[in-house]
Amino acid sequence: MTLLTRRSLVTGGALGAGLLLSGCDKLAQQPGFRRILFSGEKINMGLQRALMDRNALAPEFRPDQMSPVFRTNGNSNPNTTDYNRHVAENFANWRLEVGGLVDRPLRLSLPDIGAFPQRAQITRHDCVEGWSAIGKWQGPMLGNVLKAAGVRNSARYIVFTCADLWSGAPYYESIDMVDAFHPQTILAWAMNDKRVSVGHGAPIRLRVERHLGYKNAKYVMRIDAVASLAGIGLGKGGYWEDHVNYDWYAGI
Amino acid sequence: MDEPTAPPDPSAKPPAATGTVYRHRLATRIWHWINAIAIFIMIGSGIGILNAHPRLYWGQYGANFDHAWLDLRPYGNILRSGWLTIPAGYNLAISRRWHLLFALVLAFGLLVFMIASLINRHFQRDLRVRAREIGPRYLWADLLAHLRFDFHNPDDPAAYNTLQKLAYVGAIFVLIPLMIFTGLAMSPGMDAAWPWLIELFGGRQSARSIHFIAASGIVLFVIVHLTLVVLAGPIEEIWSMITGRWTLPTAPPEPPPAAHAEPEAAE
Q1: Which residues between 99 and 118 in chain B have a beta carbon less than 8 angstroms from any beta carbon of chain A?
Q2: Domain tally for chain B?
Q3: In terms of residue numbers, what domain contains A236?
Q4: Number of domains making up chain A
Q5: pLDDT > 70: what percent of chain B?
């Protein structure tokens, strides 16, 4: 092997790697390959659900393990007229609407929400970006609220519609019934023993602890039980799912 | 044609033994290429994901206001280069799609390869590192042989040398499993399913840091591996990893009989 050939091989290798990389992007734009690429979500969800007890708990932590500062992310103030009025009134006239496939639609005030049996948990919030923060959250289990509303058997997903607008449309997220009835899935009105702040999602933030941060919707205004995600937003089950192809299953 | 040991050793003479040996079993070859693609995609998409928050922490939590032991933001321009990431432009969602699909290829590929290599005895025959091989004298001699670009024991040219074995064992049994398990430990779902995962690594942010360190180890392995393939004769090496048949190197025909007294046989 002459040096020249070696050099050309190295150059060729580097060039090949570059072509492979740009080839990956080309491939990812082919509808057929994109389906394969996006199938990882379903496989990972299937594997995790198979390995995981339905009620397996996310790790909980001691108070001394909490983050000194729990940063905010995403929208930190919906800043709409309605929302600002609720903030000014300290959410006294705010009601959480629970509807969709339920026998008894509910309109819950903060005291109503506080009257449900409460669960407090110190858990780790994992952002899709890679950082983590540990905080304490308290509120009623979503499952109990749904039972109070008489959720029907035909419901397959729970959709959360939020006060913050993203390009004019409200932020929304959705989870399936496994996560909806998970014991750690709560409608948190308290964080670190205080009312949830505006930055962290006042008055109510969904905590769905086996998922990444973007599933934990802030500023929850409405909860709907639905049979299908089609027809809601762009149909993929959430704002980020619709607009930038985030995985709907965010357990990984 | 084939002179892997050429540069420092001008005494190359006509080959003593020519011909080919069956060196790489089918399972090894299939895994090698599947894994090469998977590693390539994992590194590119992994850098894409790292770019979303290029700071690393130790412990259970870690975010902007916490102490980062490594802050890669000053190298953001390099880490965001289009030739380094999948996709070329920053897109966390698509990087994750690549990463989390090919993570399955990497993990299950390794699992199947490990089972196959126990059955076909590739591990026991070719990768077992014997105690005497890791003595300092032996390793030193092997290192010197590498510096002479002398990679093959003339008595058994198809056998891996010690440093080569250690590199392969390190990649197969340490680095890639570490990547897989630290990767799983970062998944909030897996932390619920297998709570021992984050105990094992001392927290999710520690797991993320170890993930990065092990990935750096794999990048180093790939660089050294490719360099040595080029030095050892890239055509023959690549061809053997496709067909399994490897052309015997043309070793000098006068191997000293002292090979048994000296642990270093490749004089």
Answers
A1: 100-104
A2: 1
A3: 58-244
A4: 2
A5: 87
